[in-house]
Amino acid sequence: MKEVLSLFGFDQNDYDVRSYGSGLINHTWVVEGKEEKYILQRVNDNVFKRPEDIDTNLRVVANYLKENFKDYRFIAPHKTVNGKTLVYINGEGYYRAFPFVKNSHSFDVVEKPELAYEAARQFGMFTKLLSGIDMKDLKITLPSFHDLSLRHTQYLEALKNGNEQRIKESADFIRRLNKHSNIAEEYEQIKANPDFKLRVTHHDTKISNVLFDNKEKGICVIDLDTVMPGYFISDVGDMMRTYLSPVSEEEKDYSKIEIRDEFYKAIVEGYKEQMNDELTQTEKRYFLYAGTFMIYMQALRFLTDYLNNDIYYGEKYPGHNYVRAGNQITLLEKLIAKT
Fold this sequence. Notes:
This protein is α+β, with helices and mostly antiparallel strands.
């Protein structure tokens, strides 16, 4: 740690370093001095195979916002003593640092529709302000991340080649998922439809990726590792998947899963408040689809992993991915029932 700190200009004797946050991918620390405070991260290069691509995207976004929207609060990486924003230490990995935003905080749970509105507004603003960026300038940091066509194909392969006993156990879930294969078919049409635009998309719009001030107003979005070209249904859909129900994907009691209408309305209104003039008329009709798109895809991924003996997500207890698949199938059915 001493070598990392010194590269970023932090004297270990002047700064307190401690683990920070609840993120599951990157390891994060807070580095706090008498007057300054920073976030230090080690990028998980098992997930992000080319951390330098993330660094490139951050630089492209930072430069564009600086040139065109100077007032936007963008948390640019802190430079090392050599002027770099990403460093590699042999045997340890890739590190970067960010200034800590004073008088800011984040939430892990969306307890009020006002928070959903503010978050949706922030993610919408981020995409709107970056509408002038050439998509060719952005790297793909996670290939096929929200590619429903791929996830559906992987699911079908698991039905053929997966654990036979688990396939039998999952017959009800399989039947219920197969009823909604039209969601994957619709995605194929979206990719071929010029009315759906590729835009700068965050791709990880959980509530903890928005910073709020002390009055619970949004400041900006953070955790930009998955920023890359994408469709608006990814960001809106991920908000719906993670904001609409009062319980998370980990909930075993499916009776607690529900669709909170006021949260749905808040997401749509908050996002449209920024993106209404950017979205095509066709896209504006796909807000509900966005929710089904992301929930269906996550249900497929959890069940696929279960059928493949938990090789991707792993499990914290026996049947973990089976439980999560059932959770997301239930959420999907309850959202579709709203139509």
